[in-house]
Design brief:
The chain is mainly alpha-helical. The chain is 68% helix and 2% strand.
């Protein structure tokens, strides 16, 4: 095939063209839903501030962590320090690479903000809850008992509660850090794009699951089953989310909070399963893969142990994670269908 016959496109379009279209469409759906129902749009804060601040900040910190050791390894003098920094930055961070990372961050931002707002709109658009059905399913799967009671009796409510709380809350750090690391430190940017796009599809599919079976979760409908648990960071988070929900239900326009309670399906499980599955598929070092698979197992256990989710929410989360990985592989060109012949302009080799 001649050069003229080839369709050569820039890395950001080749990797994130389809994910950007999907996430912008998802964002537009959220904005239209808000306008039609008179609901406010919020940019949900995290522990590092709003997402449009914390995401670039985390990426910048990871970039610094990438550049500094390379500069130090060259042992520059005071006189040559600035020149060395510029040379390393230019070799590592070409404009095509920066543009691709910016497109990935934008895709994630649109998907995440739309997801959080549509989740907050849920009680105003789907006011009939399905918790009673999920409770019955839980008891059937647990042989007639309450699954959380079984876990509390089996595992105890001391060290186990503290450990699983750390596992569950670590998710709040895991998502943004894994996002930044996958884009900044990956020698193969297509792998990073695959992971970031999979996260975006997780938010989209997870939102659909929330609307399919709107539910609150065991902790909010069977609180008595969890009174034996000690106070942990997880219980503080559960109380905070419930207070935010009440504020939003009273008057969504009078608070900056978002409603963040929804049980089916578990996106904690879907996200960490996505990370573990992709680590397995791209053959990351074995200890790292084992650690991620253990993280999946403990996360799934924690969601039921603390009453965030019903048993059925866990396999539903696994299904969403697997489907997201597959859709992202198609969207970023990892999986190519017959007849799809598209060549993406290659990035400069990583130094």
């Amino acid at each position: 095939m001649s050069n003229k016959a080839k369709q050569v496109i820039s890395p950001w379009r080749g990797l994130f063209g389809i994910p950007l279209v999907a996430t912008v469409t998802f964002m537009a759906l959220m904005l239209a839903t808000a306008a039609l129902n008179g609901l406010p749009v919020r940019d949900p804060d995290g522990f590092l501030g709003p997402s449009y601040v914390r995401l670039p900040l985390i990426v910048l910190l990871v970039m610094v962590a990438d550049v500094v050791p390379r500069v130090v390894a060259q042992r520059p003098t005071v006189r040559t320090l600035l020149r060395t920094v510029v040379r390393v930055v230019r070799s590592r961070w070409t404009m095509p690479r920066v543009a691709a990372i910016a497109a990935g961050m934008a895709s994630f931002y649109f998907a995440y903000v739309a997801y959080r707002n549509l989740k907050s709109f849920l009680p105003f658009l789907r006011d009939r809850l399905t918790d009673s059905m999920l409770v019955d399913t839980d008891r059937w799967l647990a042989g007639g008992g309450n699954p959380s009671d079984v876990l509390h009796d089996l595992l105890g409510t001391g060290f186990t509660a503290e450990f699983l709380s750390v596992v569950y809350v670590s998710f709040l750090i895991f998502v943004p850090v894994s996002l930044a690391v996958s884009m900044v430190w990956s020698d193969d940017l297509s792998r990073g794009a695959w992971y970031v796009s999979a996260l975006c599809f997780n938010w989209i599919l997870g939102t659909a699951a929330y609307y399919l079976l709107p539910s609150l979760g065991p902790i909010y409908v069977e609180e008595s089953s969890f009174t034996d648990l000690p106070m942990t960071a997880t219980s503080d988070l559960q109380e905070s989310l419930y207070e935010n929900r009440l504020e939003v239900l009273v008057d969504p326009n009078a608070t900056q909070s978002v409603q963040g309670i929804a049980a089916f399906a578990s996106l904690h499980v879907s996200i960490v399963f996505t990370a573990a599955l992709m680590a397995h598929l791209v053959r990351l070092p074995r200890p790292f893969r084992w650690l991620l698979w253990a993280y999946v197992g403990f996360t799934g256990l924690a969601t039921v142990y603390f009453g965030w989710h019903y048993i059925l929410d866990v396999p539903a989360g696994l299904a969403i994670g697997a489907l997201s990985v597959w859709l992202a592989a198609i969207a970023t060109g990892i999986i190519r269908f017959p007849g799809r012949r598209r060549e993406t302009e290659k990035l400069q080799p990583m130094a």
